[in-house]
Design a protein that fits this description.
CATH topology: Vanadium-containing Chloroperoxidase, domain 1
Shape: elongated
Distance between the termini: 67 Å
Strand content: under 5%
Oligomer: single chain
Number of domains: 1
Order of helices and strands: HHHHHHH
CATH architecture: Up-down Bundle
CATH class: Mainly Alpha
Radius of gyration: 19 Å
Length: 199
């Protein structure tokens, strides 16, 4: 059964990676860029501040905790524990993959830090903004899927490297969202007290 799953995993990888051309090379390279999404993140912060005012402060601060948790789950636990070679480092796939800009990533790829981080953020903000920004998930979830797919397209992750953190990021998002809902009222009281004291 495990061998069957691995074969499907590899087949999907080779199909997506093999469907390459110059246009998609540029798009997927862009999607995986380290600083590509900085304007998007800034826009999200501005949106949250505009919509939630003081309530956005802790919401935004907790994103640092969220990303730390998801990133450590991927890079600090899963990758060293499973030591699964990335497709781009797998000698069995040598010569079968289309490598963009000679980018191969680190040695191990299970699970994808990119996928863990973007899906954790997408689910976290979906949970907290579902009442007031009902349209936001229709941007965040496709964005996270796009980033995840770019990693497979570039040949640095198998599809399961993306799928597993999608699942695991859900409880992380709920956990951090719970912290926000529990502590934000107390945080706002402290914030209001400090502001009034300074005035």
């Amino acid at each position: 059964m495990l061998d069957y799953i691995k074969q499907i995993d590899t087949n999907i990888l080779l199909w997506l990676n093999g469907s390459h051309n110059e246009f998609w090379d540029e798009i997927m390279w862009f999607a995986s860029g380290k600083y590509t999404w900085l304007p998007f993140y800034v826009a999200l912060i501005i949106l949250l501040v505009w919509k939630y005012k003081k309530d956005a402060i802790l919401m935004i601060l907790l994103i640092a905790l969220l990303i730390t948790m998801s990133d450590q789950m991927a890079s600090g636990i899963f990758k060293p524990l499973f030591e699964r070679l990335r497709p781009s480092h797998n000698p069995v796939l040598e010569g079968q993959l289309h490598i963009v800009n000679n980018y191969r990533g680190g040695q191990f790829g299970f699970i994808s830090s990119h996928a863990a981080n973007v899906f954790a953020l997408a689910f976290y903000l979906t949970i907290l903004t579902k009442q007031n920004l009902k349209w936001l998930p229709f941007i965040l979830i496709p964005w996270a899927i796009f980033v995840g797919m770019s990693r497979v397209y570039l040949g640095v992750h198998y599809p399961t490297d993306i799928l597993v953190p999608v699942i695991l990021s859900v409880p992380i998002a709920f956990m951090v969202a719970h912290l926000y809902k529990k502590y934000n009222p107390k945080f706002i009281k402290i914030f209001d007290y400090d502001v009034s004291k300074n005035n």
